[in-house]
Amino acid sequence: MSTEDKPPAPRSLAEDLRARDDASLAALLRARPDLVTPVPTDLTDLATRAGTRASVVRALERLDLFALQTAQALAVASDPATFGELLGLMAGDDPDPEVATALPRARAVLHERALLWGGDDRLRLVRTARELLAPAARRPSPTGLGPDVREAAAGMSPGRVQTLLATAGLPATHDSVSAVTELTALFRDRKRMARLLAALPPDSREVLDRLAWGPPYGQITADPAPRLRLLLDRGLLLPTAPGTVVLPREVALHLRGGRAHREPRPSAPPVTAARSHPPPSADGAAAGQALAALGAVEELLRGWDEGGPAVLRAGGLSVRELRRTAADLEVSEPVAAFWLESAYGAGLLAPDGAEDEHYAATPAYDAWRELPAARRWALLADAWLTSTRTPGLVGGEDARDRGHTALGPGLDRSAAPEVRRRVLTLLADLPEGAAADTEAVTARLRWERPRREDDDDLRTRLARWALLEAELLGVTGRGALSTHGRALIGCPASPPGGTARTAGGTDGRPPARRTARGSTPVPPGGAVGEAAEEAARLLAPLLPEPLDHVLLQADLTAVAPGPLESGLAQLLRVAADVESTGGATVYRFTPGSVRRALDSGRTAEELHAFLAAHARTPVPQPLTYLIDDVARRHGRLRVGAASAYVRCDDDATVREILADRRAAGLGLRSLAPTVLAARADPASLLEGLRAMGFAPAAESAEGDVVVARAERRRTPPRAAPRPVVDGPPVPDEALLAATVRALRADVGPRRAEAAGGAEGVAPRTDAADTLAAVQAAALTGGTLWIGHVDAGGIATRRLVAPVRVEGGFATVFDHTADEVRTYPLHRITGVAEAQAPPRDGAD
């Protein structure tokens, strides 16, 4: 192409955007989704929004280390800069082939995200990015470079500037501007600078070397030492404030060999394997841990069936209750906090909403328990992967020194889902069965997201927590990503000897998933994503089949050699106490446990039949005697409300109770040979008599036995907590296409043509037909005429192409206005089919 045929260089970011094709615009909006909310009216509006401080800061935070280093180099380069100048700043006097190879990619990333515009001969960093990354007053740039000679000498007197020229051996000039230009040219001339520095004594050169890589500022006294006075006289150090000097940028670059960075990092650090296991071994370990995770959640919520701990006034669980929960589960407090947050994130537990608020299981928990084990695990793992709740923060403090409590506020971190998915993706890049080195994983994440210095430690901790939590959940086994763990993130198993294809890009974003914006996570018992379904399918063969039997022993114990069927496990936990868990669970029958089963409404005959049906061994005679003995005494005593009373048909039993010194605290007195009155309330009276060895039954006001049903405490229906996202979500492809089309729209002829149809009669259909037609058009890409009534009651007829329907609103491309708009469905009076207007360039 000749010089005359080349398109003119863009004069602004808006012109640069106009020259891009639709795919480039869509890539920009995908990388910077905040530019789509709300949809910009045109490309000028898009360019303006892309240059705002908040948007630029967000875009810089999503750059990898080398792209950020490139932007930092451009911030200290000339404006505009050439690609050759940029390459010199990145590679220095001794070019690194790896840097030279990677630099075009970094430049393309900055250009794609509208942080850089112009051709290779006129590269311009957007003004806001330059202001954020360039040196400012008393603040060096992230490269450690200070201001250039022109900026540093801005406050110097003309006489002082001329003195610097004379000392440097340069001819005097007629003004300060040209003098500064001459001094800048000297410092940029590598040969003359080499001679100037060679003439310095070693102690003066040592000062320059100490400031070369930053910070470039130093302190001096009113009477500086000779080595400093020599540098000041030659302009190698320039005063910026009383007692403060700075090393000019040009001098620092010469000392650095032309490089803006001490160590350019053009490639991501590799994630190495710390150890390797056979894939079946890793899968088996992960499956075993997945089964243990289900048991931990069930054990946690089963203990809250009769009422969970109280909710703190500020929200969350008290430290004492967390310790108690950890002791009940026989785990550490951080692990107990993780199980609490896992159940909460999956919608299995919540506050009950009562005036005296307590935690309890939700109705969704009962539906969850009825699911197959693999599917129950998939729901837990899917909720963990997408949740912004961060259990690792429990026990720490926030910026105001307030403690983080389990289930409490302040645990949401918007980066958590991205970091978890990215960590698993990095594990998926390794061969199957390989466990990653933790330090290599954290180093890789720091390279991919280096900008947020304040969050750097948090992201590192999030990565470490993700590895620990994935192991606890059974997503990984022995540190290696399991087969079902790969499926959970949408990544197929790696081929033998190769690496897996990762899910998502280097930014760790999940694959595109069509989910209504603002929707709540799918409740347990409902559908999950395709990836979680596939993970459940792969996990199922690795889990043992639930058993329908136990082994009864003569010492009044029952051994379950594996996981039991849901109904069997529930009834066995009512009739017996869990003595130990592990590969096999040991249950012990006691008078108290048998009484608990009788209190729940079961009879001795039902217990005998239950044991006979599910025991692979004969029912031991001691167990039969125990059940019959407790049943014989169960209910002989009746406790009701007087404040409380005891009645019994056997007056000898009543006299025995009165004679027992342990009954002194109950305040009992005889009303009749078979009736006792008590000052204690019925619940305390029941507990006191049971502690004395009796088996009383509660009685209603009508004289009927009150059956104590187990597992009755549930909250009202509760939705799982919604993730707290940082910024708008990535727009789906339909919205991207509509936005790009709106930005490309020629608002002249087509708007008038579409508006001409507004003179027709607005269509009218009922609400159900309207909703169905708009949803169908959104799925098929169809075009509709709609009747719309605005807030002022004015009815219009509009030609639209629906993009998405959710939450009572329809997002459409309005051909009448040539822009993306959102209409409330209740303001659409009707719909009618229409032919789509021709696209740009169509006949």
Count the helices. How many? 34
Give the amount of beta strand, in percent. 5-15%
How many separate domains make up the residues?
6
What's the shape?
elongated
In spatial order, strands of the major sheet run 18-19-17-16-20
Radius of gyration: 37 Å
Average pLDDT over all residues: 83
Q: Residue share in helices?
A: 40-55%
The low-confidence runs, each spanning 5 or more residues with pLDDT under 50, are: 495-526, 746-759, 836-843
The end-to-end span amounts to 30 Å
Give the helix/strand class.
Answer: alpha+beta
Major beta sheet summary: 5 strands, mixed
Total E-strand runs: 25
Summarize the structure.
The chain is α+β, with helices and mostly antiparallel strands. The protein is built from 34 helices and 25 strands.
Which terms summarize this structure?
single chain; 843 residues; alpha+beta; 5-stranded mixed β-sheet; 5-stranded antiparallel β-sheet; 43% helix; elongated; disordered C terminus
What features would you describe in this structure?
With 843 residues, this protein is α+β, with helices and mostly antiparallel strands. The protein has 6 domains: 13-133, no CATH class; 149-255, no CATH class; 273-512 and 521-541, no CATH class; 551-614, no CATH class; 636-698, no CATH class; 745-834, no CATH class. The chain contains 34 helices and 25 strands. A 5-stranded mixed sheet has the order 18-19-17-16-20, with helices on one face. It has a 5-stranded antiparallel sheet with strand order 24-23-22-21-25. The chain has a 4-stranded antiparallel sheet with strand order 12-13-15-14. Helix 5 (65-76) crosses helix 7 (97-112) and helix 16 (279-302) packs across helix 18. The longest helix is centred in the middle third of the chain and has 24 residues, at 279-302. The radius of gyration is 37 Å and the shape is elongated. The two termini are 30 Å apart. Mean pLDDT is 83; it is low at 495-526, 746-759 and 836-843.
